[in-house]
Amino acid sequence: MKGNTMIKNTKRKFGYALGNHPLKTLRADLRAFLLMTMLLTGFMLPQANAQTLQGQNRVRTVQNNADALAARTSYADIVEKVTPAVVTVRSEIKTTAQAQDFPFSNDPRFKDFFGGQLPKTQQAPRVERGLGSGVIVESNGIILTNNHVVEGASMVKVDLPDKRTFNAKVLGTDPASDLAVLKIEAGNLPTVSLGDSDGVRVGDVVLAIGNPLGLRQTVTSGIISAKGRQTGLSDGSFEDFLQTDAAINHGNSGGALINLNGELVGINSQILSPTGASIGIGFAIPSNMAKSVMSQLLKDGKVHRGMLGVGIQDVTSDLASNFNLKEIRGVIVNSVTSGSPAERAGIKQGDVILSFNGVNVNDGNELRNRVAQTAPNTAATLGIIREGSQQSVRITLGEFQPKTTAAVDKNSNRNVEPAQGKLGLSLQPLTPQLARQLELKDAASGLVVTDVQDGSPADDAGIQKGDIILQVNRQQIKTAVELQSAVVRAKGNSLLLLINREGQTLFLTVQI
């Protein structure tokens, strides 16, 4: 019975049939036991060891990833390297003393007391103080900062991070780029090396270092949000800002925008904010522009910029259609200055500039900055489209000279003609007398816009009161009748207008 019971249990345990003989059964049991032992100890152990090793490798991998992440998210080494060269710039502007009327000057009793002549009281000069930041870029004390930090200052002081204070001399300023170069009498100073701002990409991590709101040595981090920005908040002539969401506040102006190599890629300059505080839209002057401006200020005390002598505007989808352009890029020449390099090179109104020195041009700000960064009297090549034909034009650049333009009288309502049907304009013929009054040299004929109906096609196109319509569909017009005829003859649903606005010409498209 016991033997039979053992056989039955073995069947259940090992899952195979045995013979009926007790010895045969025992041998079979021993073989089965040894086989199971070998399987469990000899063959399973390597697998267990492999799993253990894999687990250890995973732990090490996680640790290595954590160490790498910590290295990427801690900027302590970069900050420690750069901050000794970021300084505080303090400026003072003294206003002149002004004489004021004596108190109670309207009281006749005081006039009688002073013999009918009341003395003037002398008001004490008022001092306005400014606060900003700067970056030491040369060990002999050369500092880059913003022009608006030191503009008009009678005294400038620089505080170093080591608590030393120096009087600073303003070596040169450039309002067009909002840059200034200072000098302090010190040597062996820590510096920040200038990086290549052209190599900066949208999405790169950057650090903004400065002295916001009087707090020294403040560091914020962010990324490059955009490149080639133009704000028009300062002089606005030559802007090519790097936009960043690294927090920039009052006092950061002139401070450093640093890449993760510890290089200066921008000089913090402006913010856009409805509150005056950072909302993550800050702007820095690219280091390549700062380097060019600084070298010229140190050499000549002024900045020399190339000039074409054309008025330009960006290509829009409507303008591309009217000019039969295959791509919506480049800039349209809307005016050519008499006697300018552009006129001498044969550039004409209506030409579309696609490239400068072999590099594609996407918009007017890009072209303006590339030309400005090229030295005057330098030969350059423009790639243009004229009447659908691509051409290359050689041109020798002139030198940019800032100038003011005369304002157009927008309040004149003499000889006003009624609003013109489909466009929604009230117009006045441009007579020679009115052209002289408005100091217009190039606009000998045309129609002055005296009113624009709200919501009209002209209003939607951006035409303003005081604009002078010179051409319709590339044809000159002098009277409202000619304008109406041009509207009737127009093919399609749009008109191409050339207008003069405060001395500058530009193309506009009106949907009719």
Key phrases:
512 residues; 4 domains; six-stranded antiparallel barrel; 29 strands; 31% strand
Protein model, in words:
This protein is an alpha+beta fold. A hairpin with a 3-residue loop joins β4 and β5 (142-145). It contains twelve helices and 29 strands. 33% of the residues are buried. The protein is 27% helix and 31% strand. The protein folds into four domains: 1-42, no CATH class; 79-93 and 126-303, Thrombin, subunit H, CATH 2.40.10.120; 306-399, Pdz3 Domain, CATH 2.30.42.10; 425-511, Roll (Pdz3 Domain), CATH 2.30.42. The strands form six sheets. It has a seven-stranded antiparallel beta sheet with strand order 7-6-1-4-5-9-8. A six-stranded antiparallel β-barrel has the order 10-11-12-15-14-13. Strands 17, 18, 19, 20, 21 and 22 form a six-stranded antiparallel beta sheet that branches.
Rounded to an integer in angstroms, the radius of gyration calculated over CA atoms is: 38 Å
For the record, the count of structural domains works out to 4
CATH class of the largest domain: Mainly Beta
The CATH architecture term of the largest domain is Beta Barrel
User: Kindly state the mean pLDDT as a whole number?
Assistant: 80
- The general outline is globular
The residue fraction in helices comes out at: 25-40%
Question: Ends: how far apart?
Answer: 111 Å
At the fold tier of CATH, the topology name of the largest domain is: Thrombin, subunit H
Structural class: alpha+beta
Number of helices: 12
Summarize the main sheet: 7 strands, antiparallel
Strand content: 25-35%
Q: Tell how many strands the DSSP assignment holds.
A: 29
> What spatial order of strands do you see in the largest sheet?
7-6-1-4-5-9-8
